[in-house]
Amino acid sequence: MARKILCVAEKPAIARAVATHLSGGAFQTHAIRGNQYVKNYEFDFNFGGAWGTCSVTMTSVVGHLTGLDFDREYKGWMSCPPGALFEAPVQETVDKDKLPIADNIRNQAKYSKALFIWTDCDREGEHIGSEVRNQAKAGNARIEVKRAKFSNTESAHVRRAALEPVNLDEYQASAVAARIELDLRIGAAFTRLQTLQLQTVVAALKEKVISYGSCQFPTLGFVVDRYLRVQNFKPESFWGIKVILSREGKKVNFLWKRVHLFDRAVVTMMLERCLLAKQAKVTKVNQKPTSKWRPLPLTTVDLQMMGSRFLRLDSQTIMKVAEALYTKGFISYPRTETDQFDKGIDLKKLVEKQYPDNSWGQYARELIDGKFRTPRSGRHNDKAHPPIHPVIWVSPNQLNANEKKVYEFVVRRFLACCSDDAKGQSTDIEIQYGDEFFHANGLIVLERNYLDVYVYDKWESSQQLPNFERGELFEPTEANIFDGKTTAPNYLTEPELIGLMDANGIGTDATMAEHIAKIKEREYVAINQRGGGRSSVQEFIPTRLGVALVEGYDNVVEGLPNSVSLSKPFLRKEMELRMVEICSGTKTRQEVVQQSLDMYREVFIHTQRRINMLKTACRKYLVEETTS
Amino acid sequence: MTSPDQIAAQILSTKSLSVSQTWLNAFLSSSSTAQRNIPASALAKTAIFRLLASDIRESLSKHRSCVLPVDIHDPAVQEQRLQGAIPVQVLDIEDIGTSLWSQIEAIERVERGEAIRGREIVRTIAVGEDPEASENNRANNNSANGTANASGNSGYGPHRLILQDAAGTMVMGVEMQRIDGIALEKLAIGAKLLLRNPSVARGMVLLSPGSVTLLGGKIEALDKPWREGRKARLLEKTAGVERE
């Protein structure tokens, strides 16, 4: 038998990129029967070591091969009480449209000595890898299974990954399997329960599926929570004291240490005591070098947050574009939690690759000519991928408009990481006037450094302060009361929502954008444009149904000890933490599935018992409010 | 046997409190014979403990030297300085550095169980702020937005207090400088303070570490309803603000 190796990537484009790099461009392409996207690429490659030169078939899947579903007798919505879905038997089967792909893998495996898995190196990728392995083993039980570890599709990197294969991470694959089972059971049980129950209440919901997802609901919860905070907000008046001194032709504004207070009589009394003192005394003059730190290496969450803020793209679009840039080999894998560069990575070489660029090539050159600094290290390392960085330079005319934006951001961020902090001189003056303290701050930016390339950050010199000496007395030119009103917070924006999901442990960096898209698609939230022109911002506003569901679920658990609403992040957060435990090998898939099902089953029972709370909320927002 | 005078002298010397004769007699006659044989210092300690839980209008002397002047509220008086040590009890405490609304939101977070460890919810995110870098660059401006922090604790004040002396005169006190122990969670209603030669400006007593000694204590019958009714009072006040 020929020494043949079967390689399988997660997507056709990656298969093609890897084939191109391993073969040096000399490969034959064969179509497969039944799927127009997946191709088999054939070529020879020297894997070195025991394997040596082998003939290779490089193919791919298209995401997950299999799906999990209930046995047929549980599929109908009326087939069983929704609560039965927590225990109903489930089966993993190859999706119908993926059958030709699975056939192809089984067939190819028959003639192969080894299977080499090239799925993306993250949890989802390990699971897809395990699906591929199962098919290959079905075709050839003795096939040896290896996995390529890579984080970008740049040529040298891909070739090295081919020479240094590792084993599939079974823990990560199990964590995904657990998540898939939990999402199916919990999602189906609650979706059926709430859909069947609420359809009967409101005519508007009659034909609608009211889907539930354990990430979607807390995501919706954040939007509703902020919406209600804005709606319920009551403005209040406050008062403060401002002190002005004109000196050396400059007008210095001193800010009150107390900022402002919510009692006019007290502020008036305090101002009077300042005025009685006549003279203010300089209590502190602090001149010190200050710096604005260069950004941390780029993670997925940061890319989505910064991207939706500066590039005017929503997080899902950003991820799609980043994915395309990765597939084409321009940037590293865009799903990563790591904000520290590994010591082994040759950053200078990556900087040098940017020399040809018209906008930042010169800057890159200056870095290598002496201004290069080792990037700061953040606290996160997912041990799978480096921070997102450019792999090669791309001419702008090879990119479409969105790709250009995202690529530029990734490059500028990377160059900023390898630059020095911006340096400046800050001056803080503190004065005591009567019993009160005030301060004025001045900033002179001395060296812009990273700011020159990272155009998204702003740090500018303030007005220059006149000279003050510690202990000197002066009579302020003016001291007045000012007043103002507190203002409501704004509705939630996409970068904020991503930040909240991340901070509260909802979803993984890879799935957040999907959850946000989901609640839009389900019509639980709508997008509102605040402001106009370039400063306009997109805000999330919940629909009536969105508010009703959150209020309903909050009411379901109201007053129950130790029970938490599905609109809150805790249950999902605990589930995510248990996934991490599977990955580290401290818990098994079975344990985690049972524990998490138990948690959700408890809420499910409460929901069933107090379903009227949900119905009432829907009636309140979808019937009464629309008619009144 | 310990004489009432001995006890009174003891309380005066340790706490600078002039106890009311009637209250002291009642206290002594209520204590058992066994207790009467214990040393004066121990008995005085019990008396002080009871005193701190009592209403000072009943338990302390109303002598001119230890009560507030009756015209203390006069807003026409720019500044006056009171002489001596005047005991007062706290009837109300409010944080005037934090908006009522954010205090209500903080209470609601506690009501929803979000102050419990592991159940906290992060609700605001400074987008585009590097958390480490901003620690480095941040000015010491913690109450800039008038928001109370997530644990449901109050902000940083300053606090406005309503104080009452032994004669029943009430006056507003303003925490001009931070005083340890004056905070919504720490200071009970009915807690006793000793004002030492305090300044009074426009009818408000100026409180600072130099002019206030915290004696502690609490009047249970006032404290409990005060805490239970706090949210309702804040809500009522915000409604009032709207009407203005």
TrEMBL record, chain A:
Domain Toprim, residue spans? 4-151
Keyword DNA-binding on this protein?
yes
Keyword set for this entry?
A: DNA-binding, Isomerase, Topoisomerase
Catalyses: ATP-independent breakage of single-stranded DNA, followed by passage and rejoining
Q: Which GO terms describe its cellular component?
A: nucleus; RecQ family helicase-topoisomerase III complex
Q: Which GO terms describe its molecular function?
A: DNA binding; DNA topoisomerase type I (single strand cut, ATP-independent) activity
Q: What is its EC number?
A: 5.6.2.1
Any one of the GO BP annotations: DNA repair
Domain (Topo IA-type catalytic): residue spans on this chain: 169-604
Family as reported in the entry's similarity comment: Belongs to the type IA topoisomerase family.
Q: PANTHER family given for it? A: DNA TOPOISOMERASE 3-ALPHA, PROKARYOTIC DNA TOPOISOMERASE
Q: Any idea what job this protein has?
A: Introduces a single-strand break via transesterification at a target site in duplex DNA. Releases the supercoiling and torsional tension of DNA introduced during the DNA replication and transcription by transiently cleaving and rejoining one strand of the DNA duplex. The scissile phosphodiester is attacked by the catalytic tyrosine of the enzyme, resulting in the formation of a DNA-(5'-phosphotyrosyl)-enzyme intermediate and the expulsion of a 3'-OH DNA strand.
Protein name as annotated = DNA topoisomerase
User: What is the originating organism of this protein?
Assistant: Penicillium nalgiovense
From TrEMBL, chain B:
Q: InterPro entries attached here?
A: RMI1_N, RMI1_N_C_sf, RMI1_OB
The signal peptide, as residue positions, is none
Q: Which domain of life is it from?
A: Eukaryota
Ranges of residues in domain RMI1 N-terminal: 12-59
Q: Where is the composition biased (Low complexity)?
A: 134-155
One Pfam family this sequence matches: RMI1_N_C
Q: Where do the segments described as Disordered lie?
A: 128-155
Q: Which Gene Ontology terms of cellular component type are present?
A: nuclear body; RecQ family helicase-topoisomerase III complex
GO process terms (BP): double-strand break repair via homologous recombination; resolution of meiotic recombination intermediates
Location of the RecQ mediated genome instability protein 1 OB-fold domain: 68-230
**Which family does the record assign?**
Belongs to the RMI1 family.
Q: What name does the UniProt record give this protein? A: RecQ-mediated genome instability protein 1
